[in-house]
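Worked Example 4.2. Consider the chain below.
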Amino acid sequence: MTKKHKQGHDEFAEPETAAENPQSDTPQEQVVEDLYTQVEQLQAEVSALTDKMLRYKAEADNAVRRSKIDLENAHKYGMEKFARELLDVVDSLERGLEVHQESEHQQFEDMKEGMQLTYKQLLDVLKKFGISQIDPQGADFDPKKHEALTTQMTTEVAPNKVLTVVQKGFEIYDRILRPARVVVAKGE
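Applying the procedure from the previous section yields the following structure tokens:
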């Protein structure tokens, strides 16, 4: 029987000492040292990863805070460019309202011309920002873009066509801001 086998059966057998087997403690001590080294390395890695995770979390929190501020500013000042463009229209209206020392007929002609130019200027500003006018005179009635106020029997225009535009509509890109209010032709 081997020594090991004997030990298993002999309860009172003395364990081997380091002197009897000098190599048995050395590998065990080396394994323990290696495990301690691995634990220290893993603790350092966990510490580094924790630090990195905290930095990423702080970065994410800052990004959320910055985006919230940007969103608030966009709501608050989003119309700034649009409003700045409208200031020229306001100036034109003010100039048109000033009273000139001219003949009454000439005043009305100047006022009419000024209003036409201001109207064109305003439509140009709206167009610059994706807002277009809906003028469906003579077009087919479209319930998505037009609001029928009434129908009227007529032979001048084909049935289901816009006979009269009471109020022009507006759309921003492809979304209706206000439908055109119209009178629709009805056949006999």
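Residues 1-23 have pLDDT under 50 and may be disordered. The beta strands are 131-134, 146-153, 162-167, 169-172, 175-178, 180-186. Compare this with Example 4.1 before moving on.
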